[in-house]
Amino acid sequence: MRTSPVLAGLAILLGACSGFPIHISTPKPIEVNVSMRVDIFQRATQQGDATAEKPAEPEDTSKSALESRRRDRMAEIQRCKNSRIVGENHYGLLSIREPPPGPYGERVKQLVEAENADRSALMKSLAAEHRVALSRIETDQAELWRERAFPGEWIEMQQPDGTWQWVQKRAEEPPSAAPTPPPVH
Predict the structure, then answer these.
(1) Which pLDDT band holds residue 52 (cuts at 50, 70, 90)?
(2) Beta carbons within 8 Å of 114's beta carbon, 6+ residues apart
């Protein structure tokens, strides 16, 4: 098969050329404009302060909102438990054992009040849902929180005489290594 002289000439011409120049840089640098707004608010803490804000709107009391707020403060509550500042009482609520002084003490107080308000609302909803007395739910929740507590955390335990006393939870005893009898067939 013969190639035409025109195709041969075109192939030689294209092979000899370096091609068209392609510039991949830009004549001006790329600019990115970002605007951001940051609002910082300082809330007044004293009742008589002229800058005190109006009371907040009632918070959402749906079960999912309560659980979400509790989840958001879970780490801070655990730090307070680990520091032995708060403990679990026999009503299924938190109690401040040793309030820290100053602004941190106020923060702990607000934290415990918010957590207890959400726990109480959840317990009321459980009592209504299961049609049982609120005191039964409180007892069950208190037992659940005592079981979930880590060793060293403060919990309220009922004494043989019926009174409640603060104790630090002890480490669980390891299960005995007694051999189990073989199953009977």
Answers:
(1) very low
(2) 69, 73
Residue 169's identity, in one-letter code, is K
Residue type, 148: R
Q: How many CB atoms lie within 10 A of CB 28?
A: 5
Structural domain spans, the chain: 63-168
Per-residue DSSP letter, 27: S
* pLDDT digit string, tens, across residues 1-12: 566 777 777 777
Which residues make Cβ contacts (< 8 Å) with residue 174, sequence separation at least 6? none
d(CA 135, CA 148) in angstroms, rounded, equals 20
How does pLDDT run across 83-120, given as a tens digit for each residue? 999 999 999 999 999 899 999 999 999 999 999 999 99
Minimal CA–CA distance to 79: which of 45, 43, 119, 115? 115
Residues in the chain: 185
